Hints:
- The structure holds two protein chains of two kinds.
- By secondary structure, chain A is mainly beta.
- Chain A contains one helix and twelve strands; from the N terminus they run E-H-E-E-E-E-E-E-E-E-E-E-E.
- Chain A has one helix spanning 8-21; strands spanning 3-4, 30-43, 49-55, 64-73, 80-87, 92-94, 100-101, 104-109, 123-125, 131-133, 141-146, 155-164.
- In chain A, a hairpin with a 5-residue loop joins strand 9 (123-125) and strand 10.
- The longest helix of chain A is centred in the N-terminal third of the chain and has 14 residues, at 8-21.
- The two termini of chain A are 17 Å apart.
- By secondary structure, chain B is mainly beta.
- Chain B has one helix at 40-75; strands at residues 5-9, 14-18, 86-97, 100-101, 105-112, 115-117, 119-122, 126-129, 136-144, 150-157, 168-174, 191-195, 200-208, 218-228, 230-232, 235-237, 260-262, 276-285, 292-301, 314-323, 328-337, 342-344, 350-351, 354-355, 365-368, 371-380, 383-393.
- The radius of gyration of chain B is 33 Å and the shape is rod-shaped.
- The two termini of chain B are 14 Å apart.
- The chains are: A mainly beta, B mainly beta.
- At the A-B interface, strand 1, strand 2, strand 4, strand 5 and strand 12 of A face strand 3 and strand 5 of B.
Amino acid sequence: MRITNLFYPAALLALLGSFSLNAHAADGTINLTSIAQVEIEVTGKDGKKTRQRAPVTKAVPGTEVIYTTTFANTLNKAAENININNPIPNDSEYKGGSAFGKDCEILFSIDGGKTFGHAEQLKIKGADGKERTALPKEYTHIRWNYKAKLAPGKSGEVGFRAVIK
Amino acid sequence: MICAYVIVMNNATKNLCLGLCRCASNLIILIVACFLLSGWKQRARLNRFADFRITLPHTRWFGVVFGLLLFAPQIGWAAGTPAGTTISNSATLAYSLGAAVQPNVTSTVSFLVDEKVNLTVVGGVTTTVATGATAQATAFTVTNNGNSALDFSLTVTPAIAGDNFDPTVCSAFVESGATAGYQAAQDIATYVDELPADTTKTVYAVCNIPAALVNGNTGLVGVTATARGSFNAAGYVATVGALGAVLVQSAGIDTVNVDIVFADVAGTEDIARDAQHSAHNTYSIGVASALTITKTVAGVLDQNGTAVLMPGAVMTYQIAVAFPGAGTATNLVVTDPLPANVTYVPGSIIVGGVTKTDAADADNAQFAANTVTVSLGNVAAPANIVITFRATIN
């Protein structure tokens, strides 16, 4: 397993990367950090088993990966009209009901990100010509529309789970 | 009327199997006799059920495979994403400050897919063999359930508890695909080379069977397949024509190459998560060959030196006992009561080219009560025995 950006410390590197790419670097920006994690069962000293998140170490087919994206406003002004667009990772299937994001309207796409809608609005024509509601694994993109303004120094978090095919 | 009887006895019992009699004409009489092997009486039924037990799991197994194929479009990833594939997640954030739309910000996280080592060896087959036979093959299948191609080394385990004998001098060979079934000249590979993910290969355990076993004896034989392969950061490295490296499960995060994760279940000879799987087959001594008896009039010689069927003509009867396949027919006795209107030619019984006397003596043939009787004793397959005698038309 070769991992990039997986650890929080490693996020600093990502931050540096975004600085170099961003024309507004000098004035601050919205820092965006994506991480990939898995849930593992950890047995504590008292013998109790708890589920904890850990970096993706054993990413074999069938593994459920938790993707979390944090966004932080390092500007001196409030950011508006924030939306985050996230294609489902390659060789992965979105896990139904797993998308989360406080103060966000969560929309999905089944056409490669051209159009977005709520889960129940997405229809696919079956082989018999009848329309049916799209299955979570047929989603191609997720989009979070952040409904509030993000004040300076504040941050938010969105994420979802996908299973490695 | 000419009839043939086959009387077969096993150690404890003596069964009159068949007194089948067909007299189509005075010229040619074909008699296909039922035959028995020692122990047929009871074991035959058991074996029939055993055959069902053998067949059913296969039916189920094929059913499962067929089911998987049917569902494959829905599952979509039976084989799994190949090891070494980079999975990337990229989130792009758009925002504005007041009315001013700002450049998008993107963050990407990626990781490599690891190697999931998983394999299945399927056996459960009963192969009928003869005692003392050499190079007897019994078939297994090896399936690669992982997410990369792999090599599979093979070992044969002949000594397994719970049977009557251990096969000897065992080897394992891989079906070449040229001709179905084990072919000693073609199926010479000793390991499975480059088996793609989600594919199956037939392999054979080939063993010698000890001598002096009796029908119904069983010998278990196990085949263990061990996944082998070489990996780097890009995934599997093919080693065509050579056995890949021994796989070692990665302890922590391998920062250079893909991780190796063992996901196999325990087999008959191995434990779970050891990159191995194994199964048993059974060698069963001698059941299920068809013994046939064919009786013909091999020649006619009349008093004029021609071949006309007329009073005084001498007919040569030939009884051919054919016993192909495997196993041993014990205490095989052929009896042939002569029909009316013919007279036996004294001293004319020939068994396998050897002339026999008519008396009930040390040799295995006699003529008494107008009946030719030949005791063949224990006959090991494959065997062909020809009995002839002569009779004059009255």
